[in-house]
Structure formats: structure tokens, C-alpha cells
């Protein structure tokens, strides 16, 4: 006969970024958390991905599940105000994190790993948004790192004027 091998592992909580949408003064991320529950103490964090700096906390809201749902994980939304994304108006990159149990609990970087049926998926591109900034408009491009982590990359919407 043949042999059967079974491997398992305990994985840290994972926050799957499903949808990004822009509205007046905000960018909203909808996702699913696996391996932990979104509690009343939950919050999101944006951290400068390209250099050390302070993190900005943003509110997280659980998404109610329909009755008799068989979906795994917990749905959530977090809202990133434009003023938090571009406080000084400089180009930068932001990493997006979820703290589902607050400061003392686990943290999960938002990523795009799963496709339909839980199969690993190539991240699909998201729409680029224009944000107001104190030094002029910025383009916010949701991109994924080579390890599929969600990053918001801010660049100038228009090149700076040339000096004569």
C-alpha cells in the first residue's frame, strides 16, 4: 500500500484585503480576518513602510454576517481618512495592519493571498485614487508587495514645476 502524509501548522492571524473604495475624504478597506476575532477593542493601523515613523490608528467595524453563513473568518471594514494618509503632503508608502483585539492582541498585515475557494491568487490591481494634500494632490495607488502585502503608495499627482 501507499503512505499518507498529513502536515498542519498553526498560522498567525491573517487579514485578507477584499475591496478598496474611495469616498469624500476617505479610503475604505473591506476584508476578512482569519485565525482571530474582531473585538470591540479592534483598530487598524497605517505605518510608514519606507521609514520609521509614528503609526496612525483608524477605526475598525465588524461586518455583520448573514444568518446561517458558512463563510470562514470575520468580515471587517476600516476607514483611512485622507488627512492621515497625507499629513505633510509628501510622497510615501503606507503598510496597512489590523489589530483585532487592540494593543495587547495579535496583529495582522492586510494582504491578498486567497482567491475563490481558498486557492492562492495573484493579487488583482485596485483603482488609483487622488487625495488632496497640503502641498498639492497626491495619487494613492494600492499595490501589493512581492509577498502579497497591501501597501498604499502615495506619489505626486503632478510633477513639481521646473525652475527657470
Write up what this structure looks like:
The protein has 164 residues and is mainly β. It has a single domain, classed as Immunoglobulins (Immunoglobulin-like, Sandwich), CATH 2.60.40. The protein has a 7-stranded mixed beta barrel with strand order 1-2-5-4-3-6-7. The chain is built from 1 helix and 10 strands; from the N terminus they run E-E-E-E-E-H-E-E-E-E-E.
What's a quick, concise take on this entry?
With 164 residues, the protein is mainly beta.
Q: State the fourth-level CATH superfamily.
A: Immunoglobulins
Classify the secondary structure makeup into a structural class.
mainly beta
Strand tally is 10
In CATH terms, what is the architecture?
Sandwich
Radius of gyration: 18 Å
Overall structural domain count = 1
Describe the strand arrangement of the main beta sheet, using strand numbers.
Answer: 1-2-5-4-3-6-7
The portion of residues assigned to helices is under 10%
Determine the strand fraction and express it as a percent band.
35-45%
CATH topology: Immunoglobulin-like
**What do the pLDDT scores average to?**
80
Element-by-element helix/strand order? EEEEEHEEEEE
Quick one: CATH class? Answer: Mainly Beta
**Assembly of the depicted chains:** single chain
The biggest beta sheet reads:
7 strands, mixed, barrel
Summed up, the helix count is 1
- Termini separation: 81 Å
User: What does the overall shape look like?
Assistant: elongated
Main attributes of the structure:
single chain; 164 residues; mainly beta; Immunoglobulin-like; seven-stranded mixed barrel
